[in-house]
Target: Methylglyoxal synthase
Amino acid sequence: MDTKIQPLPATKHIALVAHDGKKAALRAWCNQHRAVLSQHVLYATGTTGHIIERDTALPVTKLLSGPMGGDQQLGAKIAEHDIHMLIFFWDPLASQPHDPDVKALLRLAAVWNIPVACNEATADMLLSSDLMQCEIDRHLPDYDKYLATRMDK
Model:
């Protein structure tokens, strides 16, 4: 499939998600990186968003709780190019009843080529990158061209 280039803006829209066993770690991480995060626009699934906003004073657009559809809402925002980065502190050792939604969210992040961190070390590396403060190009699948060729048949 052909690709096209679309920029990720200097001010990134960052999605924050954490499973129950990782919410405290994400809250602490957000407190540690408050200065950088305050320069961007934050989104989060319900409970995680409330915790981060309450404990860091960072403004967060809160969606539904993950198991109630919040993961799917974030996935839709990724597909609509409204989310530019995903920080997802997931618990790989805990069974999740909404595991298909989690996998779909991660799949969409890969399809639309946005940076993803699934643990604290990777999240630290993303936030410390010089690219956090500037516009960067990303390659996306050219679905418009693909659909146009399919309509001709």
